[in-house]
Amino acid sequence: MSLSLVVGLGNPGRDYDGTRHNAGFAVVDALARSLDLAWETSRRFEAEIARGELTPEHPVLLVKPLTFMNASGRAVQALASFHRVPANAIVAVYDDLNIPLGLVKVSVTGSAGGHNGVASLLAQLGDGFIRYRVGIGPKEPVAVDMADFVLARFSDSQKQLFDQQLSSLTSGLRFVLTDGADRAMNQLNRLPNAQ
What is the spatial distance between Cα 4 and Cα 27, in angstroms, rounded to a whole number? Predict the structure, then answer.
């Protein structure tokens, strides 16, 4: 069975740990823990990587780019090219402030929606990768700058809710990988207000 690349988007380093923009890292970290996988730093690919399998038929390579969000596509394209992984076998896990906190939406096409990490993936890979969009919204207060909002940490109550949802977010991600994007969209996309 062919390899799937599961890419968590975020910013490396302690300064960004626990920020809303690192929700992708958090979900992929949780998946790695559930599979008992260890992260290794690859200087060649500018990423932390963890290799394992969901089942013998579903090998996975988990990836956390170390290029910072705006250049995420560089690390992902290098890994995808080296392992000959097509775009439709790449799952990008990232924060979306148009989705309520802790919920998820799966899609396979669309614009970057103002997300610089996704814009970088589109520039390097083209369209066709699977998007696993993790809710961090709504943006409150409404007047706060978007960059300030996503680069801030969750409030205590939001962190508690997000941590409670990590198990279901991880299960949803597993479902995407084992059953495919179409079935996952039917199963997981129950958000009438999500963009």
Answer: 16
- Ramachandran bin of 113, using left for φ above 0, alpha for ψ from -120 to 50, beta for the remaining angles: left
Q: Which residues have a catalytic role annotated? A: 21
Q: What tokens were used for 40?
A: 């290794």
What are the Cα distances from residue 22, in Å, to 12, 34, 53, 184? 9, 19, 24, 23
Q: What is the full per-residue pLDDT of the chain (195 aa) written as tens digits? A: 689 999 999 999 999 999 999 999 999 999 999 999 999 999 999 999 999 999 999 999 999 999 999 999 999 999 999 999 999 999 999 999 999 999 999 999 989 999 999 999 999 999 999 999 999 999 988 899 999 999 999 999 999 999 999 999 999 999 999 999 999 999 898 755 444
Query: String of b and e for 91-122 (b: at least 16 CB within 10 Å)?
Result: bbbbbbbbbbbbbbbbbeeeeeeebbbbbbbb
Eight-class DSSP state of 143? T
- The owner of tokens 């990587």 is 49
What's the pTM? 0.96
Domains and CATH numbers, the chain: 4-188 (3.40.50.1470)
